[in-house]
Specification:
Elements: H1 7-11, E1 20-21, E2 24-25, E3 27-28, H2 39-52, H3 62-82, E4 90-93, H4 96-108, E5 117-121, H5 130-139, E6 142-146, H6 156-162, E7 167-173, H7 185-194, E8 199-202, H8 214-217, E9 221-225, E10 236-240, H9 242-247, E11 258-261, E12 266-268, H10 282-296, H11 300-318, E13 324-327, E14 336-341, H12 346-355, E15 358-359, E16 361-363, H13 368-373, E17 379-383, H14 390-406
Parallel strand pairs: 3-15, 5-6, 5-7, 7-8, 8-9
Antiparallel strand pairs: 1-2, 4-10, 9-10, 11-12, 13-14, 14-17, 16-17
Helix pairs in contact: 2-10, 3-10, 4-5, 11-14
Length: about 400
């Protein structure tokens, strides 16, 4: 157990975790779906609405100036958080899904032709499959999965064999939401770039666990959501290399993204605003900045070790549970326990755990292809975060033993 990381103390900063569910103290293990929010983030969002609620940019009054300053300061916070070269390369979106759709529409469609390929992960979330399918269908191109090994890693030999002259883009997750696998993305990016192919990473599951440096990765596009890193829902980011972003057409039209509008022509705003049509999620951006500030006060390496120890503890307890089958045995992974119980449907397991106050996710986790790869309709997924404790691991497995006896 980590001596330098006090998860119990940290829990006091998360108001939601103090409640009971079905008469039992809540054990929240659905962090891969969304993390809880510390009081600092909640207060920042509420403070915006209480004190400076106003639209941003171009306002001629004090509240608008204050809102604009807070909104743009949040962009600077994100730039530093992922080590982007400039604030103009940080684009606000509604989340990872919209970020990927932006790239699929504004970047990929104009570069795809008949016979071209987009390589995706065989473990991908649907949001990193379907947008590419739509773009490929419009061009007569195809989406090709990188095969998955029996221990839930990407087959890098197969990836290299697929990386031929027909490939226009590689799109994969940094961390698998369904299996927890941390992919060797630096190696994958280097191989793709050696073949002249750009790379998009879905960082939804990584930013809450790993420290991300987009320049060190040399990634072309990086997409992530706020709500999986202790920030509000409905806010996300797309980072892109400047040369790509400047060559891309707008994704949506309307207010904010224009420079001039006439009935016969429109010119577009400079980066990043040309990709931010309409009134943005101002409170969400301010909340994300608060989450980044909160994370800055935590020893991220100690937090990662703590999460690893929680997973190791869970795997040890799993050996004692009859019928437990783990999916996702990659040696490098975040604290995600994706499993099935023999003879039990994942939904039934999830419902019975909830009756005991334990919140997990059950189903295909928006990753149906990888479920098919392992021959299951879905799994039970217990996903840990830095505020979870070893006592909660014990609660999970005590509840699972009861579930086993019920079923």
């Amino acid at each position: 157990m980590s001596a330098r990381f006090d998860a119990e103390r940290l829990r006091g900063e998360f108001p939601l975790l103090a409640q009971e569910i079905n008469g039992k103290p809540l054990v929240y293990l659905d962090n891969a779906a969304t993390t809880q929010k510390p009081a600092r983030v909640i207060d920042a969002v509420a403070g915006y609405y209480r004190t400076i609620n106003s639209n941003v940019h171009r306002g001629a009054h004090t509240l608008s100036d204050r809102a604009t300053g807070a909104f743009e300061d949040a962009r600077d916070s994100v730039r530093a958080f992922i080590n982007a070269p400039s604030r103009e390369q940080v684009i606000w979106t509604r989340g990872t899904t919209e970020s990927i759709n932006l790239v699929a529409h504004s970047f990929a469609r104009g570069r795809l032709g008949a016979g071209d390929r987009i390589l995706v992960s065989g473990m991908a979330h649907h949001s990193n499959i379907v947008p590419w399918q739509l773009a490929a269908q419009a061009a007569g191109a195809s989406v090709v999965p990188i095969p998955v090994t029996d221990d839930a890693r990407l087959d890098l030999d197969a990836f290299r064999s697929l990386l031929d002259a027909r490939v226009r883009l590689v799109a994969l997750e940094h961390v698998s939401n369904a299996m927890g696998t941390i992919h060797p993305v630096a190696e994958i990016i280097a191989a793709a770039h050696a073949a002249g192919v750009p790379v998009l990473l879905d960082g939804a599951q990584s930013v809450g666990h790993l420290q991300v440096d987009v320049q060190a990765l040399d990634v072309d596009f990086y997409a992530f959501s706020g709500h999986k890193m202790f920030a509000p829902t409905g806010i996300g980011v797309l980072y892109g290399k400047r040369a790509w972003l400047e060559a891309m057409a707008p994704y949506q039209g309307g207010g904010e993204m224009i420079e001039t509008v006439e009935f016969d022509r429109t010119t577009y705003a400079r980066l990043p605003y040309r990709f931010e049509a309409g009134t943005p999620h101002i409170a969400g951006a301010i909340g994300m900045a608060a989450a980044i500030d909160w994370l800055g006060g935590i020893d991220r390496e100690a937090a990662a070790r703590h999460e690893d120890e929680l997973l190791a503890h869970a795997l040890e307890r799993a050996r004692e549970l009859p019928g437990f089958r783990l999916l996702g045995r990659a040696p490098q992974k975040v604290a995600v326990l994706s499993f099935v119980l023999d003879g039990a449907h994942p939904q039934d397991v999830g419902t019975l755990l909830d009756q005991q106050g334990v919140a997990v996710r059950s189903g295909h986790h928006c990753a149906q292809p990888v479920m098919s790869r392992f021959g299951v309709p879905g799994t039970v997924r217990a996903s840990f975060s830095l505020y979870n404790t070893h006592a909660e691991v014990e609660r999970l497995f005590a509840a699972l033993h009861k579930v086993r006896s019920f079923l």
